[in-house]
Design a protein that fits this description.
The structure is a homodimer. By secondary structure, chain A is α/β, with parallel strands linked by helices. The first copy, chain A, has a single domain, classed as Rossmann fold (3-Layer(aba) Sandwich), CATH 3.40.50. Helix content of chain A is 46%, strand content 12%. A four-stranded parallel β-sheet of chain A has the order 2-3-1-4, with helices on both faces. In chain A, helix 4 packs parallel to helix 5. The longest helix of chain A is centred in the last third of the chain and has 23 residues. At the A-B interface, helix 1, helix 2, strand 2, helix 4 and helix 6 of A face helix 1, helix 2, strand 2, helix 4 and helix 6 of B.
Chain lengths: 171, 171
């Protein structure tokens, strides 16, 4: 803590004031689970609902973290720990900013998740394990792999982009 | 972008929708200047005004970054670059989240600041050089040192401060 004489340096806008402005509390929703278990899908669906209810939200996933803040990390064990540590510290700042921060990472090590939990108060960290059966995870993963080439094609040849398809899964 | 069939994995809540909800645009205000030039003081004063006007804001400074996200960085030249890189990437995510993100760091190297600027669109990054006279900076610093000698002296003694390289010399 600084002394009273340097108080003009300090933040006057607190988490509590931001939450009052937002009319909702902030929290970290930590989605965990295997690849293909639906972490990101569920997090984005929850975000859509919360946004429509007027809440301030953000979802962290591989797309916006692995190419940015954690772009200089490999997939070694040490770097995986550091990856989760940085995501945890960032989520903590979003919490302070009054945002409902959702993270969608495999985060397989309990120690990593407990370290993040310890950064904040007990009620500020909710862990959500996406407990999908392995067969479902594998099916969803392989489906994504099949779809990916089409994506690249549509980028390089815009004229040949196929017409929009409905969002529902074809039977 | 993924193809239409995998769109259910993707974010539906965009920066634009968040800005509409907030009724203001998001932006990065990058305060730079010598130790004691008033970066943090000014940033927090701006934040107070913006908050009272109903804006979503956050200020990053040494207090909330150096002990968290960047706690494993030293003050070596390499680590100073990495410090600014991480802050830039984090500010970019706050921008995406619809927040007016203010940063208050010496950030003496123009190349570091230009690298952050290049992460976002032209109008999303506003650099603010706190151009206080050296004597004023020193007076403010020594006032802080008297109040909290251990903390300030060990981290940012003027002798070890890197030379400031403003983006443009004021005429």
């Amino acid at each position: 803590m600084h002394s009273a004489n340097t108080v003009q340096h300090r933040a006057t806008v607190s988490r509590s004031r931001r939450e009052q402005l937002n009319r909702h509390r902030s929290v970290i929703l930590w989605f965990t689970g295997l690849s293909g278990s639906g972490k990101s899908t569920v997090a984005h669906a929850v975000e859509e609902e919360l946004h429509q209810a007027g809440c301030r939200t953000f979802v962290f996933d591989g797309d916006n973290v692995r190419h940015g803040l954690c772009a200089n990390l490999s997939f070694s064990e040490d770097d995986r720990h550091e990856n989760i540590r940085r995501i945890g510290e960032m989520a903590k700042l979003f919490l302070e900013a009054g945002v409902i921060a959702m993270t969608a990472f495999i985060s397989p090590f309990r120690t990593d998740r407990e370290r993040v939990r310890a950064l904040v108060s007990e009620n500020d960290f909710i862990e959500i394990f996406c407990d999908s059966p392995l067969a479902v995870c594998e099916e969803r993963m392989s489906r994504d792999c099949i779809k990916e080439p089409a994506q690249v094609k549509s980028k390089t040849t815009p004229a040949s982009r196929p017409p929009m398809k409905p969002r529902s899964i074809p039977t």
